[in-house]
Batch of 3 targets.
Target 1
Amino acid sequence: MNIIFIAAEASPFAKVGGLGDVVGALPPALANRGFSVKVIIPGYRSTWNYKTEPLTQLSNLTVTLGNRVVASQVRRWQNPAQAQHEVYFIDNPEYFGQRDVYCDENGKPYSDNPERFILFQKAALKLIAETRWSPDIIHCHDYHTALIPVYLKKNLAQVPPFNTLKSVLTLHNIAYQGDCEMQLKEICDLPEELFMPMGALEWYNRLNPLKGGIIFADAVTTVSPTHAREIMTDEELGAGMGGVLANRPTPVLGILNGIDTAEWNPVTDVYLFMPYSISNLAGKKVNKVKLIEILGLNPALESRPLLGIVSRLVEQKGIALLIDGLEKILSLGAGFVILGSGEQNYQRELKRLANQFSDRMAVKFDYDNVLAHRIIAGSDLFLMPSRFEPCGITQMYALNYGAVPVVHHTGGLADTVIPWDGKDGNGFAFREYRAEAMLKTVCEALQVFEKPDEWRKIIINGMSADFSWDRAATKYIALYENLINNKI
């Protein structure tokens, strides 16, 4: 089977969030299973940090944007460990060149982002045509590539090799839809009826690429089973797309993301003070003691529960709930360690609390990968009070490291964290999105922490789970095969 991934990000070449993680990890997992996998992303500034080769036969890959003819070049990266995994970069000095993925150095989105990704999608399809690849599946991701299923059905349905392939569109965050001014239809080169009122690409008099992709993709997936149900039934979580999703001939399929178990493995993690395993947890206590020491917290916390958070400090992640409940949690004798950055009002309040409780609470407003590993290894509990979470991977890291998660029961958090019932489970969850519900659940977790036998069982349950990309790859392979065999 030949599979082509087309996306705006792919780790490690260009990564902003979870999308980059998925497109960086799933293709090699599929290649390891014997499939030929090619990935196409834009050639941003960061991609030049990797050893690539130009495709000289494609030194002038041209597409039209309205009345303009725009030329791009193509580079290729070959996975040295897996010959069947390749990454191709669409290079264009004007649109990508020395730019980052979505935003400038000040965090401001590029004003021409819609045009950039229309160019990218056209160039990706042109690359496939000119190299005469014969893909069975084109797997698109989020709004940046959502026009591709539209092109396949409306412009290329009779054109080899596109006439026989199937398309998959994965929604990593349905709230981002790429809607833009309707005048950009002039550079799309798609039939006019798609832009008419109630047309597949029309959304409140604007152009909405994601809507079109949802309508025309052969299969639509999202990154957890619970989130798949949520976006089809909850108007807020579906970001207005519930009706569009409901009108598809097949429902959204939720496939849980995996984690990189080569990097996130407490047995081999080079960032830890001491490795540990499910059969020998002694190192986990060493990591807790050393974490408390390097952060300058009270040594008395070594015998008390230590909670950790590694997160963007934004509204979606439940930081307001956290701030509302922090003083109560700290008053119970627990310690707290927070790593992340985000909204300034949240940072100010967390800094105030850290100053007030300096012996029990530490914050760092940054993303420090080494410290992230050490917090997850050294924490007894890991808090994720997200208002919504399509998948979430940090709770999987926590489970893998024996840091017991306390989460809001939503999306992928609900699919991975099984609430402890006194006999079984791997964490704790609250269903109502309120600070009081979060606090009650944290208090329940702290009570169980005082019962070593129960606590150890919760840790072992979490560390026993399989969150590898191989598990996720198996589910995607089944989807691809069903599409090819017309069983969907």
Target 2
Amino acid sequence: SRFWKDTDGNAVSHVDLIQGSYRAALTPNTIEWYDAYQKRFTVSPDYTSGYTYDALFILKEAIEKAKSPKPDAIVAALEKTDFTGVAARWVFEDNHNSKFGPGYRVMGMTQWRPDGSRDVIWPAGIKTGDYKAPPWQK
């Protein structure tokens, strides 16, 4: 919503590939979290907000499971993560990257609407609306 304000509403039809924070069913927790965030802060979450929120809970869970403040113990617990947050289901691969794709972390393509809202227009699994040509293209 800050982008909309910063462009004085001239973001109509702007399409962006973003991750982490939009009002779509990324997980069973996303929409409830998104709405609570927007109510509390009066702006929509930035693209990194969902990732940051999840990261803190993933770290908390790993520290509790490690039962130790030692980095190696925490890393070992993080490697066993299977956490469903607000931005994604987080499971890490052997190289420590998060799994990506349906059922895990996905990136959505969004489009700004004339009323200042955004719809996820791709991929189909999290889609909230269809692509609409800009009003100046007929």
Target 3
Amino acid sequence: AAAELKTLQQQLNTTRKDQITGVNGTRTLLHLSERLLAGELASKRGATGKAVAAFKEAVGLEDRLHDTEPPDWPLPARHLLGAILLTDNKPAEAETVYQDDLARHPKNGWALAGLVASLRAQGKPQAAEETALAFREAWARADVVLTESRIP
């Protein structure tokens, strides 16, 4: 992963202009992928603060993308940010991240799973149970069991 991150960073440094091949520019998508990989690598190394910072940057980059169907970038940065905030014992911040994601993507199972965890971590059992019900409805036909809002 570290070698891939260096490769992404080199490509980002040498790609000066955003080439538009679809709706979103290649440099923008490259920068987003670099921030997500940097965050994941920092997370695995136990550098939670660096991971949070990288994921927050990724969220900002993702928010500037133009909407496309299917999306040019299918891996929601907020799901990764929320998960690392929970790991960092910041469930109230994670709740805000998941609520924001759900405002953009209603009934998203990944965000609902993270929201349930953040509500439980804050000692909000009634809200957690209501959200868990919404999660079960949204995830009823899924073939993946979620343990958090990202794939560990």
